[in-house]
Design goal:
Blueprint (H helix, E strand, L loop, with lengths): L3 E6 L3 H4 L10 H11 L7 E6 L8 H8 L16 H4 L5 E4 L7 H5 L6 E7 L1 H14 L4 E9 L3 H12 L5 E4 L1 H8 L2
Helix pairs in contact: 6-7
């Protein structure tokens, strides 16, 4: 049985809603993968949420000038986890940044735990989290079929980039992770 902690990255309404400018078209596919993984990580899963800062600083000012719809408080509807995950998220960590490898997430892992990543968006928040965790010396598994990107091409390219970081980052699938975790 492998040790690990599942980080479910940004399974939020803003990425699920097809009318959102930040929609991940294959959100439902990623959600299905996450649902498959959750039972194997009971008590060892953290959900994250991307939220806007109260007052953007630095380059984030230009970012939010491009995306003013997103300048909403953390309790706004667009930042909520989608309904299917609301009751399953025992621990939720918010961050006003793409990368979710925060001290709060790091503290949830044991010393030998792998970080298992699933969620959206593969080429943004998943990639940023994977690279930061790998830089911190953490072994990272990215579950490709439990992730979704802004489009299929971006998703595939991000997975290819992360695969170049082996052995620090490994791209895998739901079935392989479940086979390792055992009954």
């Amino acid at each position: 049985m492998t040790t690990g902690h599942l980080a479910v990255i940004d399974m939020q309404r803003v990425f699920a809603d097809p009318a959102s400018p930040w929609a991940a078209p294959r959100y439902a596919d990623a959600a299905a993968g996450v649902r498959s993984l959750l039972p194997a990580f009971a008590g060892r899963a953290t959900f994250t949420r991307f939220v806007a800062p109260a007052k953007p600083a630095g380059a984030w000012r230009d970012y939010y000038a491009q995306w003013p719809f997103a300048l909403q408080p953390p309790d706004a509807a667009l930042w909520r986890l989608t309904d299917e995950f609301t009751d399953l998220a025992d621990t939720v960590v918010d961050a006003p940044a793409f990368g979710k490898w925060t001290p709060q997430l790091a503290a949830r892992l044991g010393p030998a735990d792998r970080l298992v990543l699933a969620g959206v968006s593969t080429e943004c928040c998943v990639l940023s989290t994977a690279l930061a965790a790998a830089d911190a010396g953490r072994e990272v598994l990215v579950v490709a079929d439990a992730c979704a990107g802004a489009d299929d091409d971006s998703h595939v390219k991000a997975l290819q980039i992360m695969e170049m970081y082996r052995p620090l980052i490994q791209v895998t699938g739901v079935d392989a992770v479940l086979a390792e975790t055992g009954p």
